[in-house]
Design goal:
- With 141 residues, the protein is α/β, with parallel strands linked by helices.
- It has one domain: Rossmann fold, CATH 3.40.50.
- The chain contains 6 helices and 6 strands; from the N terminus they run E-H-E-H-E-H-E-H-E-H-E-H.
- It has a 6-stranded parallel β-sheet with strand order 2-1-3-4-5-6, sandwiched between helices.
- The longest helix is centred in the first third of the chain and has 14 residues.
- It is globular.
Length: 141
């Protein structure tokens, strides 16, 4: 029997939560998903229910600063955090990755890309899209 994968989705748009839940429960066997509409509620849930992965929309109430990564890690040090946002990747990804996020994926990405981001982060690897990786690399030259 597989150990369940516990995922916490911190997202204030019900349709996005619904879509992520459907996608993840179909793709990853044994997935247990909890969700919160704001950052404070997400922290409360995390305190009571350790997660393997947090999918965080940085646009949720209370969750719109890079410090949110540290707040999550103060509750559960080893939790993996995937940023899932409609904000421009090229403007925000580097700051959140430097702050300790394990991955950054756009809400404009295809389902397959979001699923790949989740799997990559769960496999203890970092995830950013190829276009964002190229932009970040170009900014360091």
């Amino acid at each position: 029997m597989n150990v369940p994968i516990n995922i916490l989705i911190i997202e204030d748009h019900d349709i996005v939560v619904w879509a992520l839940e459907r996608m993840l429960t179909k793709a990853i066997e044994g997935t247990v998903i909890k969700s919160a509409p704001n950052f404070d509620r997400g922290l409360q849930i995390l305190l009571q229910n350790p997660a393997d992965l947090i999918i965080l929309d940085i646009g949720v109430p209370g969750g719109n600063t890079v410090e949110t990564i540290q707040y999550l890690r103060n509750v559960q040090a080893e939790v993996k955090v995937l940023i899932h946002t409609g904000l421009p990747e090229k403007e925000f990804a580097a700051a959140y990755m430097i702050a300790g996020a394990n991955g950054f994926v756009s809400k404009h990405a295809a389902f397959e890309d979001v699923l790949e981001a989740c799997q990559t982060v769960l496999d203890n690897e970092k995830y950013i899209s190829n276009s964002t990786r190229e932009t970040i690399a170009g900014n360091t030259n």
